[in-house]
Design brief:
By secondary structure, this protein is mainly α. It has a domain of 84 residues: Tetratricopeptide repeat domain (Serine Threonine Protein Phosphatase 5, Tetratricopeptide repeat, Alpha Horseshoe), CATH 1.25.40. The protein contains 16 helices and no strands. The longest helix has 19 residues.
Length: 288
């Protein structure tokens, strides 16, 4: 196996694990604002880090108290505000979570897409569908992995029977999923989030992203593995199935069948797509 192929497989494996784990916290080096009193800053960060440990252990009340204490010392400590919002969200205290996320947005955070996505989920859970759709679309515009936000938007529009708009968003999800440049950048950002704010790895990745120099490195990697992973991606299969459903709902049966077949090509065991294909084939025969 080529060295570059091994490197690519390793990177994409890490990328996949990070996607499965999801984003628990939202941190960034520029959020550690330098104050005139360095001791204050160090103390607030230490308390915030204790809160992070509670958050990871799902001790949300304890985490919230730590973040509130840290913010009394440094009111604009973005990492504490972000993770306070996450803790409230995990606890189910959605109104306080929304307030914290919106406060964070006023402070020019590094990863606004994560905030908009979380707001979209909160609004969707609380039945504010229009606000959820609005935030998912904002997340898609600013996210490292916009396909997930486009999928969420597509589902909302599909449930509203806005078939064409749903299809547009599902196709955007597919396009972004298949774009190796976007996936590579997203992988870098995910690895950056998994690193300590003050580590050399964090700073190196930050410099690469800001300079767009990662685009120069793409030719060094074997894209066959990237597309091989896509050919078995279950979420991609679901997106093709959703497009097929939307097309069938508009009586565009031939187009629907084409998308449903792609869904089954990616995931032959996808029962929903197989059932949809049987139904649409029947509808097409009756139509003819």
């Amino acid at each position: 196996m080529k060295t570059n192929t091994v490197i690519t497989y390793f990177i994409l494996t890490i990328w996949g694990i990070l996607l499965i784990m999801g984003v628990l916290t939202i941190v960034g080096p520029s959020w550690l604002v330098e104050l005139s009193d360095p001791g204050k800053n160090v103390e607030a960060i230490s308390i915030k880090n204790a809160g992070d440990n509670y958050l990871k252990s799902k001790k949300y009340n304890e985490a919230i108290q730590q973040y509130i204490t840290a913010l009394k010392i440094v009111p604009d400590l973005k990492g504490a505000i972000a993770n306070l919002a996450v803790a409230y969200q995990k606890k189910g205290d959605f109104n306080k979570s929304i307030l914290a996320f919106n406060e964070l947005l006023t402070l020019d955070p590094e990863y606004p897409g994560v905030i908009y996505y979380n707001l979209g989920e909160i609004y969707e859970k609380t039945g504010h569908i229009d606000k959820a759709l609005f935030n998912y679309l904002l997340a898609a515009d600013t996210s490292a992995y916009p396909e997930k936000s486009y999928q969420k938007a597509g589902h909302i529009l599909m449930n509203q029977k806005k078939w064409n708009k749903a299809i547009v968003n599902f196709k955007l999800a597919i396009d972004n999923k298949k774009e190796i440049n976007n996936s590579y950048k997203g992988m870098l950002i995910s690895n950056q989030k998994a690193s300590s704010d003050t580590s050399n790895t964090y700073r190196k990745i930050d410099n690469i992203i800001k300079a767009n120099s990662y685009l120069e490195n793409l030719s060094d990697y074997d894209d066959k593995i990237f597309y091989e992973l896509l050919s078995h991606d279950i979420n991609l299969s679901k997106t093709y199935n959703n497009i097929g459903f939307c097309l069938a709902s508009q009586e565009k049966y031939s187009e629907s069948i084409a998308y449903l077949k792609i869904a089954l090509q990616i995931n032959p065991n996808y029962t929903e797509a197989r059932n949809n294909l049987k139904v649409v084939n029947g509808l097409l025969k009756n139509k003819n």
